[in-house]
Amino acid sequence: MIRTSGLTKRFGSITAVDHVDLDVREGDVYGFLGANGSGKTTTVRMLLGLVLATRGTAELLGRPMPAAAREVLPFVGSLVEGPAAYPQLSGRANLALFDRMGTGGVRATRSTRVGDALDRVGLGGVDGRPVRAYSLGMRQRLGLASALLRAPRLLVLDEPTNGLDPQGIRDIRALLLELNRAGTTVFVSSHLLAEIEQMCTRVGVLHRGRLVLQEQLADLQRPTGRVLLGTPDAERAIALLDGHVEHRDGDRLVVRAADAAELAVRLVGAGVRVAELRPERHTLESVVLEATGAGSDDFSATAAPTGPDRGGRG
Amino acid sequence: MIRVELSKLLRSRRTWVTIGLVDALPTLVAVLLALTDLGPRPGTGPAFLSAVMTDGTLFPLAALAIVLPLFLPLVVAITAGEAIAGEAQQGTLRYLLVRPVGRARLLLAKLVSVMAFVALTVVVVGATAYVVGALLLGDEQLTTGATSVSGTSLTTPELVARTLLALAYAMLSMLGVAAIALFLSTVVRSPLAAALGTMGILISSTLLLTLDAADSFRAFLPTRYWLAFVDLFRDPIFWRDLERGVLLQAAYVVVFLAAAWANFATKDITD
Predict the structure, then answer these.
(1) Does tRNA processing appear among the keywords (chain B) (predicted)?
(2) Can you tell me the distance from the alpha carbon of A69 to that of B51, in angstroms, rounded to the nearest whole number?
(3) How confident is the model at residue B234 (pLDDT cuts 50, 70, 90)?
(4) pLDDT over 50 (residue B6)
(5) What share of chain B is helix, strand, coil (3-state, %, to 5)?
(6) Cβ contacts of residue B255 below 8 Å, gap of 6+?
(7) pLDDT at A190 over 60
């Protein structure tokens, strides 16, 4: 659905995006992760033909961008760096106006389409007040409604949950997953790890303009080969598992063991009480930190990469 | 897209407020003339203003001569200056372009919308002026028609034809302004800067016209032939300045629209 090759954008002497090779497949919920200023928005703008690449190519739905913008973009819904609307018009009037633009939707079904889009994002009951009087969350929902207007095959959403309250974030996440189940490929950019982790099937991490990681989320969250054990009999457990205990914090132990079930049998067989036992997995956070080193808005003179924090929060 | 822009124009309250304001000045002039009965002496003041004291139905022309040098260009500069920069500042430009609306098409739609606005303004000003002139000002309606600037009389059909020509000429002059403002609107980020930049160019042009030292390029200044539409009401019509004015405005339109297109078509939309 999205494929870029060597995509590069320079603004003067600054390289905002540097040889990015994105690969978003049909049916993905793709999380495009990166700190503020890492080049996410510029990449999104290049995908949509708003910013022209200095070098490299981008394909949307198998067609080159921006050359095929006219054929491709009607099937793409997008939210780029915050929503925008005509402030003096109501949300409904705004959507109707956007629907008329470009190739234009069928007139007879316009009001149904607008109504459906508003319903989907939870603005179905909104009154005729102008967008000027909307809250940030309502504007964000309206922007999403505008992206959904033409039942797109691909959604490209830049920070879609910005400005929403926790309930709103949950609504939007549920909506995107529902659309995905119905066949829409979703490309979401965010600087929030948790958001990506809860929603996405594939993750790409952008750091200082470079794509440092691109993988299935499930593969990233593979087991670390260690088990977290909580037991009131910590001393006995250490004695039993001689040498395999890597770390102790009160009655919580980190044990090097390939199979948690086997470990459980062994502990219980020896009469060690087990309060908690689970295999440790890599977290998105630990993987991302390892891949990126220092934060991209960290401009300290000696930008030495910080040591990778392997343990994460377990 | 053209229809979308036109409906945006007509639905905007600002459109009508602006037209009302532009319309207010000639109406005020008419009221003052009617109350004081103090017309400018023939040959002084804005064109046609002395003639309306005798024939109020000539007032639309006088009204046009009042709004053309300053108000109309100001309105055009603001509206066309806002065309792209305003959408960009509002954030809606990127959503227009990903609809997708082609960039050249968007420029064209904006230009058409600006010219529709000018036409609407001219029509409203003309209609109001006709009503006000007929009601308040001189009613010595000459059944044979009006008097030309040269002193001979014009028949009504002649007068109507020449008035339409004058309107077309004024519209072309405004198209030149719109082209400049539209170009600036694709260059700068702020709609205000585009509008003021355009006004700056027009004011510089007007100033340089009065300067003998600028004689060598006077003929190429954008405002040089703006008021040449008065020549349409001479008998016979004095075509020289009108022809030059048409050519000059056409050149400005072509050059600045081409520049606007060239700049906008390859521009990175980052706001």
Answers:
(1) no
(2) 58
(3) confident
(4) yes
(5) 75, 0, 25
(6) B179
(7) yes
Residue spans per domain, chain B: 2-265
Dig out the tokens for A290 from the structure: 């390892």
Q: Which chain A positions have a beta carbon within 8 Å of B101's beta carbon?
A: 101-102
Question: Which of A105, A104, A98 lies closest to A83 in space, CA to CA?
Answer: A98
**Please, are residues A4 and A20 in contact by the beta-carbon 8 Å criterion?**
yes
CB A253 within 8 A of CB A234: yes
B98–chain A Cβ distance below 8 A for any pair: yes
A223-281 shares the fold of A2-220: no
Chain centre distance of CA A253: 33
**Rama region for A158: left / alpha / beta (φ>0; ψ in -120 to 50; rest):** beta
Query: In CATH, what number does A223-281 get?
Result: 3.30.70.100
Angle at alpha carbon of residue A217, lines to A214 and A219, rounded to 5°: 90
With 0.90 as the threshold, say if the pTM is over it: no
| Residue B55 DSSP code | B
CA distance A252 to A276: 9
Asked if the C-beta of B1 comes within 8 angstroms of chain A's C-beta atoms, the answer is yes
pLDDT over 60 at A3, yes or no:
yes
pLDDT category of residue B61 using cuts at 50, 70 and 90: confident
Angstrom distance (rounded) from CA A30 to CA A211: 14
| For residues A43-64, average pLDDT | 93
Cβ–Cβ gap A45/B266 under 8 Å: no
State the CATH class of domain A2-220.
Answer: alpha beta
Cβ distance A88 to B13 less than 8 Å, yes or no, reads: yes
